[in-house]
Design goal:
heterotrimer, A mainly alpha (276), B mainly alpha (290), C alpha+beta (437), B: 290 residues, MetI-like fold, two-stranded antiparallel sheet, 13 helices, 75% helix, flat, C: 437 residues, alpha+beta, D-Maltodextrin-Binding Protein, domain 2, 2 domains, 3-stranded antiparallel sheet, 18 helices, 10 strands, 12% strand, globular
Chain lengths: 276, 290, 437
């Protein structure tokens, strides 16, 4: 029996949740508004800003000064590339941990997670030296490798928790029917774990897109992604709110759109084994 | 059920990940460990020499070190408290029937997609700036003196910014979990005459324990190494008010280019992080096995 | 990519004779201030002339400094041209990290560059960076406000005590004008750039001749007390977060009656498109106190070629273009003369167009010529530099002291606590680096 909910109560919750949503989203909305104002108007009071003229001049200025498309392509290549490569390594590992657990499996998993606690600032110099000697400085390949490595523990762990949720009986039944390991992986397991895999991929792309330390420090120009693009608009001389807003909007828009479009997939899988 | 054959296969499948992460751990970490025992300043080439425990001595007795530890704990703890409590409240709210739930959810999760650098820049300049920020304009409109956020309450300001970024993450996980809560169980409790508060206390809280531990674990991993937000807003100051362990290591190894001291700091940070990790794993391990 | 680059390099060697005329792709790292953005815009002229192309990495100052230092100290070779300051140039040159730049030929006219500037960018007699613009510091003030208050400045350099009395007279927060705006944001290139010359004026120094830090000496205590008291009594709110850019915006917006800061900001303050006080501003030397030595700082932004660059010739050709007399003229004609890069060349100050467009030009020139990094303190010191100490350790110490001073300004601790912490830190660092036992 579904509970009847009064219209009034529904209206109140809608209003309350709407307020919460609006407040959370407001900073993004605000920079979107500022990005469409002139520099002089962008530092005024909120009401004056809203009533001032709209203009695209900041986007023009950003476009003139920076090669947005190049930074964007680099961001896409690095975040998608590292995620794809990482999944290739993480899926088998997570499968093995989930379905053929050994005595040490938990420890291995925990150890993997603990590598994520390595403070990047402490190992930049060693890594910079390695990159210099291997010719990986300012290359997408180098960044793809690093981003894959730092996100690999998260991928393995997320996938592990999804695979754990697949009922063992189904797999056993498949095996009884004589399914090989490969068939088992592709025809039984993959479809069942697909939502989980989709959400892992999305989450890791987001994390890689937003990572700002390695991407800034291991690149100069050729492989520099959007994080480096933003670093040229923070606190320059003179008025800069409108230009900073425009640059911010174009830097976060692609991932924001991806996130919104795919939010159903992202949310469905984003449980980390927390839901039984 | 696992056969000898599948065990071997499993080992084979797990090995690429393990080997890669081992390399990732051993090579830079090994170099860091080695450097931490050297007198090694990048700005003074040619002076590298064995230094024993001196770097550790200097790092541990650094006047900023205790502050950095305390700030790290406050930062992680503060953000966790806000995101967990806020996340539970948001999740309870969004779990109610309402119109336009999809749109509202889209708005709530948006901050999670914003680059940390961008969100720090936006909060610092457009909101918390004591002259041109929105908060300053609001304060002036109300006739009170604008608060100079990064001078008066620097750490709280950073906690606020980071919480804004992570609140959507906590909300999402907790909401998914709430939605999986058995309606029948709730209704049974309701029939037994349990009011909302009792239902929350005895049905929902136990159910949320697990996702909350997950939120704590994942966020802690990321929060221990918060860096961009501090670099953009306060540079660790005023004084050492917002210097966390990561930022202190940054100062040593990338502002003073004292690679030896920075490496010693890195090693100490890894040890401390692992202590926290073991503690967390204990807690979560129990929860995940259940 | 490095491998690919090596292949291309090998290709050049094989093809031998054409190497000189080959179009190169250069990577340039620079800071995001307005002069450099103009340079980026105008660089297409040079690209068209030479056939080379430039890839720009434009970064915020702190990020740039850290990024470039990492690369050059590890000989990473990521950049062909870098933007550095008067602090880095001599240190890095002496380390052998930069190509010397003495071979641009007669047409470049080295003698046209101010000697102070050339010396500031040289080490052991070799020039390691060529100046893009240079600056000293002086006092900006609002002549309309001074007139209304009946204040007349003599030709004499005033003392900081006199300065404070004047500031007190013009402080009018109810009408949105603060007596003075000074840097408060922590950093060796931010608040310490103001505090350094202030301490010099009060007769203080960073180190004695044996490299013992002197941060709790009477001169430092007096200077810091003066600074904190001045800012608390007559400064704008949130002063501890204001750096050069923030103060410049405040002054241009008419919120400050006085401001002691970079001479290079004059081009902005006197540009009516950017500033609302362009016709109401005048300037005078930075104040003195017990001495007039080291009261105006010296700084230059300069371009250099790392020793790790593989495209030295093309890079040098760009440097020669971007710091030439002709470039100054190009900016003057396309962007307006008031925006021409100041402080580097005598010919700029002999140019009638510039002199008539920039009323501040002569004072700037005098301030730069007066600044002497080799003799900037009352008592003898083992270092050079006016507002900084030209040793690699200074960055770390300067930043720490800057943070302590900012904390004192934000009322989080007393001046004495700030100085004692600073002294303890400086002693530790100097001991660690082996200067003192």
């Amino acid at each position: 029996m579904a509970r009847e909910v009064s219209k009034r109560r529904k209206a109140i919750t809608t209003a309350a949740a709407g307020c919460v949503g609006f407040l959370m989203f407001f900073p993004i909305l605000w920079i979107a508004i500022l990005s469409l104002k002139s520099e002089g108007d962008a530092i005024r009071g909120p009401l004056e800003i809203l009533s001032s003229n709209w203009t695209l001049e900041s986007y023009g200025a950003v476009q003139e000064r920076s090669n947005y498309l190049k930074h964007f392509t680099n961001s896409v290549a690095i975040s998608f590339g590292s995620t794809f490569l990482g999944m290739l390594v993480a899926i088998p590992a997570a499968w093995a941990m989930a379905f053929v657990p050994g005595r040490r499996t938990k420890d291995v998993l925990m150890w993997m997670l603990s590598t994520k606690m390595l403070p990047p600032v402490g190992v930049l110099i060693p890594l910079y030296l390695i990159f210099r000697d291997t010719g990986l400085l300012d290359t997408r390949t180098g960044l793809v490798l690093v981003m894959m490595l730092i996100n690999l523990p998260i991928m393995v762990w997320m996938l592990y928790t999804y695979f754990k949720e697949v009922p063992g009986e189904i797999l056993e039944a498949a095996r009884m029917d004589g399914a090989t390991l490969r068939k088992e992986l592709f025809y039984v397991l993959t479809p069942m774990a697909l939502p989980g895999m989709a959400s892992t991929v999305l989450l890791v792309i987001i994390l890689a897109w937003n990572e700002a330390f390695w991407t800034l420090n291991l690149t100069a120009v050729k492989a520099a992604p959007l994080t480096a693009f933003i670093a040229s608009y923070s606190s320059p001389e003179g008025l800069f709110y409108a230009k900073l807003s425009a640059a911010s909007i174009v830097a976060i828009a692609p991932i924001l759109l991806l996130g919104w479009i795919s939010q159903k997939q992202l949310v469905r899988g984003l449980t980390f084994g927390a839901v039984k | 059920m696992a056969t000898q054959h599948s065990r071997a296969a499993a080992r084979l499948m797990i090995s690429p990940a393990v080997i890669l992460l081992l390399c990732w751990m051993l090579v830079p970490l090994g170099m860091t460990l080695y450097f931490s025992f050297l007198r090694y300043n990048l700005l003074m080439p040619g002076t590298e020499s064995w230094n024993g425990w001196t770097n550790y001595y200097y790092f541990l007795t650094d006047p900023s070190f205790t502050d950095a530890i305390i700030n790290t704990l406050l930062l992680v703890g503060g953000v966790l408290a806000i995101t967990v409590v806020g996340g539970v409240l948001f999740a309870l709210l969004l779990d109610q029937p309402m119109w336009g739930q999809g749109l509202i959810r889209v708005l709530v999760i948006a901050p999670f997609f914003v680059m940390p650098t961008v969100s720090a820049l936006v909060w610092k300049n457009m909101f918390m700036n004591p002259v041109n920020g929105i908060f300053a304009h609001l304060a002036n409109a109300l006739g009170v003196a604008p608060l100079d956020f990064f001078a008066r309450i620097p750490l709280a300001s950073i906690i606020w910014i980071v919480s804004w970024q992570w609140l959507p993450f906590a909300t999402l996980i907790l909401l998914t979990s709430l939605q999986s809560l058995d309606q029948e169980q709730l209704e049974a409790a309701e029939m037994d005459g349990a009011n909302w508060l009792r239902r929350f206390r005895f049905v929902m809280i136990p159910h949320l324990a697990r996702p909350v531990t997950v939120v704590i674990l994942i966020q802690t991993i990321f929060l221990l190494s918060i860096f961009a937000e501090i670099l953009v807003t306060t540079n660790g100051g005023p004084g050492t008010a917002t210097t966390n362990l990561t930022y202190l290591i940054y100062v040593q190894s990338l502002l003073q280019f004292d690679v030896g001291a920075g490496s010693a700091g890195g090693v100490i940070a890894i040890i401390l992080a692992n202590i926290v990790a073991i503690f967390l794993m204990r807690m979560i391990g129990k929860n995940l096995d259940a | 990519m490095g491998f690919k680059r090596a292949l291309i390099g090998a290709g050049i060697v094989v093809s031998g004779s054409v190497a000189g005329s080959l179009a190169e792709e250069l990577t340039i790292a620079t800071v995001n201030n307005s002069d450099m953005i103009i340079m980026q815009k105008l660089s297409s002229h040079w690209e068209a002339e030479t056939g080379h192309t430039l890839n720009w990495s434009v970064l915020e100052e702190n990020v740039l400094r850290q990024r470039v230092t990492t690369d050059i100290a590890t000989k990473g070779g990521a950049f062909d041209i870098i933007t550095i300051g008067a602090y880095e140039a001599p240190i890095w040159g002496a380390q052998g990290w930069l190509n010397s730049l003495d071979d641009f030929g007669d047409s470049y006219d080295y003698d046209d560059i101010f000697e102070t500037v050339r010396n500031g960018l040289s080490a052991d007699g070799a020039l390691y960076a060529v100046p893009f613009y240079a600056e000293s510091s002086f006092t900006f003030y609002r002549k309309d406000i001074f007139e209304a208050a009946g204040i007349e400045l003599g030709d004499e350099q005033m003392t900081y005590d006199e300065f404070k009395d004047i500031v007190a007279m013009v402080h009018d927060p109810d009408n949105g004008v603060y007596g003075t705006c000074q840097r408060g944001k922590a950093g060796w290139g931010e608040n310490m750039a103001f505090v350094g010359p202030l301490v010099n004026a009060f007769g203080g120094r960073w180190f004695d001749l044996d490299w013992n830090p002197q941060l709790t000496s009477e001169a430092w205590v007096n200077a810091l007390n003066y600074y904190v008291d001045l800012m608390h009594s007559y400064g704008p709110p949130g002063a501890s977060a204001n750096g050069h850019n923030e103060n410049r915006a405040l002054f241009a917006d008419g919120k400050c009656a006085t401001w002691v800061d970079a001479t290079s900001a004059a081009g902005y303050i006197f540009n009516p498109n950017e500033s609302s006080v362009a016709d109401k501003t005048d300037f005078t030397q930075a104040p003195k106190q017990v001495t007039d030595k080291g009261t105006g700082w010296f700084w230059a932004w300069a371009l250099a070629v790392p020793a790790s660059s593989t495209k030295v010739d093309a890079s040098k050709s760009f440097l020669a273009w971007a710091t030439s007399k002709e470039y100054v003229e190009l900016v003057g004609e396309s962007e307006g003369w008031v925006a021409a890069p100041p402080g580097t060349r005598k010919s700029t100050y002999a140019n009638a167009n510039y002199m008539s467009a920039a009323p501040f030009a002569e004072t700037v020139q005098n301030s730069i010529l007066a600044a002497n990094p080799a003799d900037a303190t009352l008592e003898p010191v083992p270092y050079t530099g006016v507002q900084f100490v030209a040793i690699p350790e200074f960055q770390g110490i300067g930043n720490y002291v800057g943070q302590q001073v900012a904390a004192a300004l934000a009322n989080q601790q007393t001046v004495m606590e700030a100085l004692e912490n600073s002294q303890a830190f400086a002693e530790r660092e100097m001991r660690k680096a082996g200067y003192i036992q």
